[in-house]
Amino acid sequence: MHFELNEETRGILETARRFVENEVQPRIREEGFKRDFVSKMGQLGFFGCAFPPRFGGSDSGFLAHSVVCEEVSRGDSGLRSLFNLQGMTVPYTIMEWGTQAVREKYVRDLVLGNKLGCTCFSEPNAGSDLASMETRIEDRGDCIAVNGAKTWISNGTVADYAVVYGSYDRSLKHRGLCAVVVETDQPGWKARETPKLGDKSSPIAEIHMEDVRVPKENLLGAWGQGFTVAMTALDRGRISVASGAVGLAQACLDASVAYAYQRVQFGRPIREYQQVKALIAEMVAQIDAARLLVRRASWLNDQGAPFTREIAIAKYFAGETVVRAAGIAMEIHGGMGYSLEMPVEKYYRDSKLYQIAEGTVNIMRLLIGDDELGIKKANRPRLHVPAEFRGLE
Ligand SMILES: Cc1cc2nc3c(=O)[nH]c(=O)nc-3n(C[C@H](O)[C@H](O)[C@H](O)COP(=O)(O)OP(=O)(O)OC[C@H]3O[C@@H](n4cnc5c(N)ncnc54)[C@H](O)[C@@H]3O)c2cc1C
């Protein structure tokens, strides 16, 4: 693994930095979904790093995806979820598990930001325990029918296409799961926005599906292969989530350094106090470590190597890092940390999701602990590797 980013990745990183400065920062206090940002980010190639040109991408890889996602999250963590939905858990899952016809139909428009995607795993009674999903996916002969409810669906109110997981036979537990691509304009699809703590530019929804019809070719993988599809999608999604955590943690550090220069107490800028320096040093060390872990996992994925263990470690560590960094930033800002005038109260609210989404802290610990203790190996050979899709005609 090289620690230097290549020229292509440095180029897209610079583009992301300019986009954040010129477009995101001026509208940072504007809450709500910004459709124009999705189109812009799609056109700038932000979602397409891992995709071949034919599907709207640049073939620059998962490490590049991670770097760009980090930079945008540094500007607004709420935009981070788009990297997942427009880049990983929706279009990449379709690339990996869909037929060529299904890829042709959906992937390019998602990657370019022309259409919006969402991923539906979570349900009122099935969060960490995905195998207990109650949504029913049935073969009706001429089509597939989907019935059930989903919660916490990012982009749920705005998505055109959804990757929906459910079971065709609950007695089979995880072996009964399936994944299908649903077009959300079908009769029976209802979405209602869920109010939440942070990430205000990323809408979250509760979804109800009543006899939603899906063409049979929209099944991803085979009947009963949905759990494997979900696990590969989660690995990719964890790259976006962990990268977003690093970006937001960096924003906390940047704000803290600036404030430590500006704020004077007892006749000296607070940066001169050793306890403030120690807090800054703690942030720097943890962010550096988190970034290296995320980049190692992304790089392994680029090599076609298994990376489930490494991305779980990265996601766990980055999630803990960002929550700690947001807390430290609040501390360094004193009363101003609590004020709506400064960005750190937003960082504090936004940080918490990184310990929850795409697998909670406990689930990451479980995966890492089981692997280390030899109870369940995390890294297994993959059915598909990125090289298969490179240069796909
Ligand atoms: C902002 C945000 C965006 C989200 N976006 C999406 C999305 O787009 N699509 C989607 O499908 N979902 C999404 N989610 C849902 C998210 O994936 C779930 O919240 C998460 O998987 C946890 O599930 P849960 O909330 O049901 O918690 P639960 O699974 O009920 O967990 C509750 C607590 O119990 C602990 N726990 C559970 N099982 C174990 C165990 N075996 N061992 C130890 N501890 C355990 C958990 O760690 C947690 O602390 C999103 C959530 C948030 C907050």
Number of domains: 3
Q: So how many helices?
A: 11
Quick one: CATH class of the largest domain?
A: Mainly Alpha
CATH topology of the largest domain: Butyryl-CoA Dehydrogenase, subunit A, domain 3
Q: Which ligands are bound?
A: flavin-adenine dinucleotide
Task: Sketch the topology as an H/E string, one letter per element.
Answer: HHHHHHEEEEEEEEHEEHHHH
Strand order of the largest sheet: 1-4-5-8
Radius of gyration: 21 Å
Average of pLDDT: 96
What global shape is seen? globular
Quaternary state of this entry equals single chain
What can be said about the biggest beta sheet? 4 strands, mixed
Summarize the structure.
This protein is of the alpha+beta class. The chain contains eleven helices and ten strands. The model has no long low-confidence stretch (mean pLDDT 96).
